[in-house]
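hiii, so i know i said id send this last week but things got crazy w the move. better late than never?? heres the sequnce for the chain we talked about at the cafe, plus the structure i predicted for it. fair warning i was half asleep when i ran it
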Amino acid sequence: MAPRKQQHILDTTLALLAERGYDRLTIESVAERSGVNKTTLYRWWPSKPALLADALIQARALDFGVPDTGSLEGDLLGLAEAIAALLTTPPTAGIAVAALAASAQHPELATSVRAFFADRIARERPVFDRAVARGELRPDADPMTIVDLVAGAVWLRAVFRGQPVDEAFLRDVVRLALHGSAL
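okay and structure toks below
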């Protein structure tokens, strides 16, 4: 059984991560801001990485629906738009960037970030199953590679280059991921 205020605790964890970064995020600060005794937090999450792992996967702040537009291209565009919004809109932009930076510096957190992305690809799997059923995608196509191409382009543009992620860019990325750039 999870604590009564679990969602509030997880949201608080992500808010503090965005504000302070991973190094200054503590169980004590989460307890104080969420109004929960730190012993309760330690009972459910034995460490900061464990708490952050659950927060990344379960908190509503990073959640977005899986589109069902009737076409693979439309669904991928919907996913790209959701990723772009997550990476460019506070507070989720700060959460995503802080989690990425922390995972690069703290190997114990890298497992949590991998779990988050494994959870996301599992949630997005129906997009590809529907596309195969409609005959839009080869059955042996790798959904993770397609998502990596689309999400990676959005991450690179928004986070690393600091450039705008507009509709034209997203459409181009989806088109390139699905059809390549050959004539």
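btw The mean pLDDT is 91. thought thatd interest u
miss u guys!!
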